[in-house]
């Protein structure tokens, strides 16, 4: 078996071994396993059954990661994206714009678009489709919303007659959340593998004597049925131009998340060529696109390459065998669904807050010395925060960016695709 693995993944060439790849795979899983508890919680806000979503997350994450390992031979791992799940649940479904069945259909469309762009080699054109400040702003916008959701789920912020207010901090729920947040941050700073998972487990256990955590009757069981979420597409009402902005938000989020993650992790692993490109990058893009299509069939939002792949790389993972071991861990998690479903909302709140804060790091790459590159991303954040809509924030930011560049006589910085997207978002806002 070792000989065949050597032949398939060229372990010696990449200065690694089966043992190293195994440890890297486990490390990846520990770093990203929080998604097993967090994603179902988010999707439940859209009215989807938590148990079925938990099964889908574990199954699709396993399939996608193994597919990545076998096809691309890279140590990248995949799971449903946090940002797109937030957009799906709160902007599309909870606001009443679409049903979750229609929302999943939009995810399918975005996956097909991503696949076509990859097959026909439009990756480079798409990478230059949006200006850097807008791409960075989108990450910050999602970060703001994740922080808001974490604070809301924990009960730290509550609705008042004047808007939002802060709750009393001496309640058990909030004390546990703040304690878990500090613990997770400390573990993150000390670079402890699986810090978010440790935080979730700690809060869950601490909540037991307080009656916050309800233990299941059994620890092991067959996973909940996928029937309530599988192939539940609803294409009614999706043929109008007003749906295009939502498809673009899914596509843009998935595409640029994947591009940034691939280049970032590959750079850490010293996989980039002298021009800063990842050899055969079309393969992980293909896997990402196909995985999103598969995920939509299982009732999930876009499936994307996770930055937590860097965890496995940091301990020596260099080939697709790392991704395969991570995928097998996700399959194993299917047997522990009762434990996943017992996790209370407050246990996942620190994860949402920390991931949101990490996404705000994208602001550090924006050139605040030029007003025309600053107004748009900051407007996106403000509109998202005050309107509670990621789509509205992106729409306003994009329109402002285009308007400012035209006023300043910098039309050459605007691509035809950007003009088209601006027109689509103007139509979208006009329909609100």
UniProtKB/TrEMBL annotation:
One of its GO terms (cellular component) is plasma membrane. Pfam families: Xan_ur_permease (PF00860). It comes from the Bacteria. One of its GO terms (molecular function) is purine nucleobase transmembrane transporter activity. The keyword Transmembrane helix applies. It is a multi-pass membrane protein. Its main location: membrane. The chain crosses the membrane at residues 21-42, 48-70, 77-98, 104-122, 134-151, 171-189, 196-215, 244-265, 285-307, 319-342, 349-368, 380-402, 414-430. InterPro entries: Azg-like (IPR045018), NCS2 (IPR006043). Signal peptide: none annotated. Keywords: Membrane, Transmembrane, Transmembrane helix, Transport. It is found in: Endomembrane system. PANTHER family: XANTHINE/URACIL PERMEASE C887.17-RELATED, XANTHINE_URACIL PERMEASE C887.17-RELATED. Belongs to the nucleobase:cation symporter-2 (NCS2) (TC 2.A.40) family. Azg-like subfamily. This is Putative MFS transporter, AGZA family, xanthine/uracil permease.
């Amino acid at each position: 078996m070792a000989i065949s693995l050597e032949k398939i993944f060229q372990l010696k060439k990449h200065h690694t071994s089966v043992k190293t790849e195994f440890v890297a795979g486990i490390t990846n899983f520990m770093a990203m396993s929080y998604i097993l508890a967090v994603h179902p919680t988010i999707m439940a806000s859209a009215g989807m059954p938590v148990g079925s979503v938990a099964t889908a997350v574990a199954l699709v994450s396993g399939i996608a990661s193994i597919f990545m390992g076998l096809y691309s031979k890279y140590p990248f791992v995949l799971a449903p994206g946090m940002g797109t799940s937030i957009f799906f649940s709160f902007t599309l479904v909870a606001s009443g714009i679409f049903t979750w069945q229609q929302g999943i259909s939009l995810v399918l469309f975005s996956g097909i678009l991503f696949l076509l762009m990859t097959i026909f080699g439009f990756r480079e054109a798409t990478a230059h489709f949006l200006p850097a400040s807008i791409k960075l702003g989108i990450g910050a916008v999602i970060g703001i919303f994740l922080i808001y959701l974490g604070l809301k789920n924990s009960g730290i912020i509550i609705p008042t007659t004047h808007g939002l207010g802060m709750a009393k901090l001496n309640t058990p729920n909030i004390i546990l959340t703040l304690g878990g947040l500090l613990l997770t941050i400390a573990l993150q700073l000390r670079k402890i593998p699986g810090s978010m998972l440790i935080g979730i487990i700690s809060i869950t256990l601490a909540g037991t004597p307080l009656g916050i955590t309800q233990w299941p009757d059994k620890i092991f069981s067959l996973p909940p049925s996928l029937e309530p979420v599988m192939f539940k597409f609803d294409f009614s009402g999706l043929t109008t131009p007003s749906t295009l902005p939502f498809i673009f938000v899914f596509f843009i989020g998935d595409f640029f998340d994947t591009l940034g993650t691939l280049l970032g992790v590959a750079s850490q692993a010293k996989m980039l060529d002298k021009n800063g490109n990842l050899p055969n990058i079309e393969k992980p893009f293909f896997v990402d696109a196909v995985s999103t299509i598969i995920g939509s069939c299982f009732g999930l939002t876009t499936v994307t390459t996770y930055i937590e792949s860097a965890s496995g790389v940091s301990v020596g993972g260099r080939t697709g065998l790392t991704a395969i071991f991570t995928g097998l861990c996700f399959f194993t998690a299917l047997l522990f669904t009762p434990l996943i479903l017992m996790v209370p909302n407050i246990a996942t709140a620190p994860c949402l807050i920390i991931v949101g804060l990490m996404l705000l790091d994208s602001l550090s790459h924006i050139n605040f010395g030029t007003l025309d590159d600053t107004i748009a991303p900051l407007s996106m954040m403000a509109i998202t925060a005050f309107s509670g809509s990621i789509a509205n924030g992106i729409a306003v930011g994009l329109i402002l960016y285009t308007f400012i560049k035209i006023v300043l006589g910098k039309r050459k910085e605007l691509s035809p695709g950007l003009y088209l997207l601006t027109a689509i978002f103007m139509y979208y806002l006009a329909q609100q």
